[in-house]
Amino acid sequence: MKLKDLAAELGLSQTTVSRALNGFPEVNEATRQRVSEAARRLGYRANVSARRLATGRSGAIGVTLPLQRSLHFGPHTAEFLSGISERMAQHDIDIVVTPIDADDEVPVFRRLVASKRVDALVLSAPTPNDERIAALTELGMPFLLHGRADNVKIPHAWLDIDNEGAFRRATSHLLDLGHTRIAMINGPEDQTFAIHRARGFRSAMEARGLSPDPQLIGGGRFTDENGFRLAQAFLERRPRPTAFLAGSMMTALGVFRAIRLAGLELGKDVSMIAHDDVFPYLNADNMVPSMSTTRSSIRAAGARIAELLLQMQDGKPPGSIHELWPVELVLRESTGPAPR
Amino acid sequence: MKLKDLAAELGLSQTTVSRALNGFPEVNEATRQRVSEAARRLGYRANVSARRLATGRSGAIGVTLPLQRSLHFGPHTAEFLSGISERMAQHDIDIVVTPIDADDEVPVFRRLVASKRVDALVLSAPTPNDERIAALTELGMPFLLHGRADNVKIPHAWLDIDNEGAFRRATSHLLDLGHTRIAMINGPEDQTFAIHRARGFRSAMEARGLSPDPQLIGGGRFTDENGFRLAQAFLERRPRPTAFLAGSMMTALGVFRAIRLAGLELGKDVSMIAHDDVFPYLNADNMVPSMSTTRSSIRAAGARIAELLLQMQDGKPPGSIHELWPVELVLRESTGPAPR
DNA sequence: TTTGCTTTCCAAATCGCTTTGAATGCGGCA
DNA sequence: TGCCGCATTCAAAGCGATTTGGAAAGCAAA
Question: Are A47 and A106 in contact (CB under 8 A)?
Fold first, then answer.
């Protein structure tokens, strides 16, 4: 069932049918009804390849999967991708995922652009001097950055959460509770967001005339395992840290295990605030004890990015798109006064 | 830079250039060299939409993301998707992810088929009477099932791991160690794989004249939280279970927390074998104590499914594709003799 | 020289849609 | 009546590849 068939069936020209289906104003309302009814009845759907060829737009947006980067395609990416695709599905736009090695990103971009496979890209996990921005700008491929690349001066669209503010507030709160030996289990050190978090941590400490103990700072992947190992090492130091900041709920689980294994009680002997990207399957409220968190839905960010991408396609200049989302601080049972 | 331009540049016809690039035999080797050199130099890449229209193949395969199903788009799906896309990238085939509500799967399939958006689909998380198989078969859309739909008689391609055998062996091993009160934390009950695992568990028990205690069987999502709650409930029963089977590493983490919280020691007071889908960021070996697992890489399964999909496109009949992968049992420190 | 094969290359049709530029029908108005 | 303007509709020209059905060139055999 193609357009021609449908047109023949209706005794109309392809032009009219096409226009009726695509909501052009110059077609009689009665005709439009007739056309869309027939289309539905006969199960007609435009061949996307043909449409794409004719319009010159691919009707797809690309999301790159970091294969060997410090950030894996893990739960965070999955959740983020859900957010994007949920929104895009409503617009009949495909999400094509492209695995990409850290080494040959630019060649892959070049291919993506030349083959007109996608209309825009979503970039994740930026570093401060992210070179992808220049590459894509030069290639003329629209993109939206999830996160920030502080040192890149080229105008570009981004959406980020206020990592610095979140960790500053979390740290301040721990300081208010009397904690001074605070350990920080951050993300991969090269990532902008991790740098921002470290900055927030440091600035809150310094505001009280303290400075972070480098011995109590760790980074790396957001995994249970990494959280566990770092926390275990930190807990062996004397004096022992009385509070932890964890970069993700995964790390927090590992930290929690280490705390238990050391015979300590979370929320009493040791406090913890973790960053919660809001996974539907990992609820800070339901943990025992419930976890205090800095919270920002990564799925919502994905959905919003999809939205902004659509606006960019409608001509909104990328340089005008900058969103910095505030992060909530949600206090629960895992934080308590510092033991004296 | 389009084919026409490239052809003009070379003083050849589009036909010849196209053939040279696509490796047809009837073009002179010297010409081919000249063509591909020029293509490289000028950065020519075929417009995928045009190619797709001309060939009638979309050059993409679809992966559906269950949005509201019992299985979320979580770490498992992410890892699986990595496997697929890794393999497909080598063939310049796009992966398009389509979010899909459990309710309107068939309409979405119908649209996918009619719009010729993808050449084939990957289906995950089947139930025993999975109705998607009939729907897709009827629509003539090739697909490959990750898992099995036992009661569906329509011939179709599938790849699955031997869940039943894995859990039978794991259970047998626990029985060998003297455990008899074994708790099982399974996956979502409607899923075939969970049913198979339950069957393996039961059959191992029955082979020793025992039968599983329904009070010690739980299901649900593969999350830390779910594992924690179920394990905690089970550990309150008397006599207490001395061993756990966990459906995933995520659940296992929760079980582990519950065990610690109950003041018990894993590997001594309580044993556990978890199913490990092999996440790069969650290593059973590095846990403390290290975790005994039934192991099968879900990423490898994804890669293999991609491979099989390619073979299907080359004409291999779907009905002939059935792969049942054995599952390793890897014993580590989390399993020990039953306390007397 | 002709014929018959290969080898190598080409012109033009095709894929199914969008879009341009023009045609048609019809009521209103002078 | 004749012309204009508006609302509809249409025929045909793209979009950029693949592919069909030859054709030209080169060469060996007749």
Answer: no
